[in-house]
Amino acid sequence: MSILFTHIKELVQVREHTNEPLRGAAMDELPSIKNAYLFVEHGRIVDYGSMEDFHPHPAEEVYNCEDQIIVPGYVDSHTHLVFAATREKEFEDRIHGLTYEEIAARGGGILNSAAKLATMSEDDLFNQAQKRLKLLISLGTTSIEVKSGYGLSVESELKILRVVKRLKEENYIPIKATFLGAHAIPANYKNDRDGYLKLIIDEMLPVIGKEHLADYIDVFCEKNYFTVDEMLRVIEAGSAYGLKAKVHVNQFNAIGAIDAAVKAGAVSVDHLEVMTTEDYDALSGAKTVATALPSCSFFLGLDYAPVNEMIDKNIAVALATDYNPGSTPSGNMNFVFSLACIKMKMTPQRAFNAMTVNAAHAMGLQDEVGSITKGKRANLLFFKDIDSIAAVPYHFGHSIIDRVLVNGIDIKK
Ligand code: NIG
Ligand code: FE
User: Is residue 225 within 6 Å of ligand 1 at its C-beta?
Assistant: First the structure.
């Protein structure tokens, strides 16, 4: 199948390559071509350029896009898409004054989600997750990372990862799976932390490795969850199975996790609502991508990650949703875009770079998605009758996407 788009009002995020994540001043540049063409064949971007240099390509479908802006699809590098039940009771408790930590201490939070997931069949979990994913794709997410972490037992963690495997098989967008057995200490191991770590390392990881159920490994490194030493133990165990780390750090407390994770070669450190001078220093110039999750700050009323300060300090910043039933019951990247601009004071250019090129680096997909680059997947978003990409975050709470293409194929809403 070949498709030619001509007279495109603006083709945004065009780059010859994206070998490195964007940092510093490069975050302010969002390269684009006005009055452009784009040629797609077999689901990949084959050619693009200005209409002035247009070489006619014979194509099965041709579209005149003079009233449309075309951009690469959003890359959501941090989600907990597979969960069994929503948690609006905790939402109400927080309105009445309880904090996220207090709710967790009472057995709510992650343990609540794990109890519900244990009773749900793999098929039901899959059907729910698939429905959510379809909605997210219609909202412009055309690559996604999905974590386990609501299992906390051998059986349930594997159940989630098998659901993610099925999602990979039944959808055409790139999906990366992350094993997050170290999300919380389950109630039955309350007095035996070491026993739970051994369960992760000796029982869960070997099966995950054998069945290729994960691409990455994650740990919730936080007071009352996992210590820095425990995080390093899990990361090291994961690396024996070829799993690189993407970790939850600095959501509520700075406990030295960032420096340790960077030194352990983590692909990304995520959350970062609380940052110290040592944390900035550890990340400055590092390969590790710093992923901010503004919808989580919005929903829990936390501080927003200081992304502009990070960019000034030469840190590679990405944005993602953190979609999960406890801290972020929204997987809408358009809303992340708005929050990044409105609450974090990122320019639309910075925010869009963070949710495409840098987010692709945060999940090892920099050669596949995140920009209009020859050879990359034709995962594209179309916006009608807007003058610039700034209109997208401006229309907060809405999706103004007109059309979504995955591998060059239209996704029906
Ligand atoms: O990224 N912080 C850890 N994990 C999730 C929330 C988990 C939950 O509350 O269910 C997060 O915010
Ligand atoms: Fe998360």
Answer: no
Q: Which residue range(s) make up the domain with 306?
A: 75-361
**How many distinct structural domains can be found in the chain?**
2
Pick left, alpha or beta for residue 150 (phi over 0 → left; psi -120 to 50 → alpha; otherwise beta).
Answer: alpha
Q: For residue 272, what are its two tokens?
A: 């970062």
CATH number reported for the structural domain that contains residue 181 in this entry: 3.20.20.140
Question: Is the CB of 326 inside a 6 Å radius of any atom of ligand 1?
Answer: yes
Which ligand 1 atom is the nearest neighbour of the CA of 270? 1
Identify the three-state secondary structure at position 48: strand
- What are the tens digits of pLDDT across the range 359-398? 999 999 999 999 999 999 999 999 999 999 999 999 999 9
Q: Is the Cβ–Cβ distance between 379 and 335 less than 8 Å?
A: no
| pTM reported for the whole predicted model | 0.98
Question: What CATH number did the domain enclosing 389 receive?
Answer: 2.30.40.10
| Distance (Å) of CA 202 to CA 152, 154, 195, 219, 237 | 14, 10, 10, 16, 9
Residues with CB under 5 A from ligand 2 (ion): 322
